[in-house]
Amino acid sequence: MKIKLSKAYLDNVVFQDFTLEIVDHKINIVIGPSGCGKTTLLECIANISDYDGEIIPKVEKIGYVFQEDRLFPYLTILKNLLIINDDVNKVNYLLQQFNVEYLKHKYPHQISGGEKQRIALIRAFLRDNELILMDEPFKSLDYHLKYNLVEMIYKLYEKTNKTIILVTHDLDITLYLGHYIHVLSLKKPKLKATLENNFVAQALNNESILLLNELKALMV
Amino acid sequence: MKKSSCLYLISLISLLISYYFLSLIVNNEVLLPTIRQLGNYFYQIEFNEFLKNVSHTLLKALSSYLISMILAFILAIIARYKKLYLFINPYISILKTIPTISIILIVIVWLGNELAIYLIPFLVIFPLLYETIFYQLKNVDVKLIAVTNVYRFSLKQKLKYLYFYPLLEGLMLSFKQTFGLCLKIIVMAEVLAQGEFGIGAKIQNERINIEMSGVFAWTIILIVIILVIDFVLDTVTKRVIKWKCYNEN
Predict the structure, then answer these.
(1) What confidence tens digit (pLDDT) does each residue in A53-105 have?
(2) In chain B, positions 221-240, which contact chain A (CB-CB < 8 Å)?
(3) CATH number of B56-240
(4) Which residue of chain B comes nearest to A126, CA vs CA?
(5) HEC sequence for chain B
(6) Which CATH class is domain A2-219?
(7) What is the distance in angstroms between the Cα of B159 and the nearest Cα belonging to chain A?
(8) ipTM of the predicted structure?
(9) Once rounded to an integer, what is the mean pLDDT over residues B201-225?
């Protein structure tokens, strides 16, 4: 997927002729400091924010995991998923797979933040989406819940082989999940570097620590 | 028995005891009838008479409320267009601020007693319902709008999941808060319009005859009706709006 776009909020120019190449069927991590336009980038790709430029190919079917769960508060968890895909068997299968079947008759206010985020993640993978966007899905989760969600994302990726674009601040998650790491900056050039990571879903080793150090240097 | 029900019962009994002693101290049945006199009056009310007067008041309240709700709904949708909102807004502000007693007297003089009883609650309830519906439509969660856009909801789905449920919640809660008020205004209008039937008409009739037991008895009937409606609405609301966190106490 090739992205070329310009985007401004009144006088604040976020992207000026910004180009980025997303690698299909891989996990692409977008990392960078606050305010560099990570969320805006996802919103443009999802077509929920106006922009100048083009994204080729135009993706119609998108799954989106927002920073907050964004579940419909007046529907049960099951109904929240069924309005996205009415295939009950698929919904039940995914709920079982991720050990959250016990939540299906509850309302969002009756479950915890971590559980809500897991449901939001299942929702993104429910339809036959070509692209999955994730905007800091680990925000406000504790360490344990965060790594549950990381494992869940990786399992879903392995099962579906979808193209994933994940925005995060976490270097350790970036290293664990990202096949490709796109580092953005506040200044020009907006795209500082794109790194390839051969250590996905592995524990830290000597070589991956080198990559981590390279990432840390880019983030300064 | 639940602790809250127990406290409710104790409060009710203490009210009856206070009333009993107060009526002994006042010792004037024209000013404050005793519990025995009230009991006698209740005993003398015929069931048909009771049913006729109560149903008259309730039907007037329901029909006025329904008309208010339909009109408020239509105008709230129209007012989503800014120019029309600016046009409608002064009328709503006037209706909201004009004293109820002024509305009652003006409408009675202009339209006569019978029509006034229907129009008065409409004029009081309509602006409240209009504002509830208008703000429910206006304050639809933008974050959920983004979800419906990303997942490409159809127009029917958007109407259902973005507007219908929040509106249902707002209207149920508003109905609970304003229907009692609507009943009280109907009774006030019945008293002032001197209608033939209805709780207000009975209160006015008993007042003219200086039968204070009757005034108190019909007032108590109105209170009980409002409490029963409140209880029923509470139960229905909890069943319909299951997603709302209710305090269990």
Answers:
(1) 999 988 889 999 998 889 999 999 999 999 999 999 999 999 998 889 999 99
(2) none
(3) 1.10.3720.10
(4) B151
(5) CCHHHHHHHHHHHHHHHHHHHHHHHHCCCCCCCCHHHHHHHHHHCCHHHHHHHHHHHHHHHHHHHHHHHHHHHHHHHHCCCHHHHHHHHHHHHHHHHCCHHHHHHHHHHHHCHHHHHHHHHHHHHHHHHHHHHHHHHHCCCHHHHHHHHHCCCCHHHHHHHHHHHHHHHHHHHHHHHHHHHHHHHHHHHHHHHCCCCCHHHHHHHHHHCCCHHHHHHHHHHHHHHHHHHHHHHHHHHHHHCCCCCCCCC
(6) alpha beta
(7) 13
(8) 0.88
(9) 91
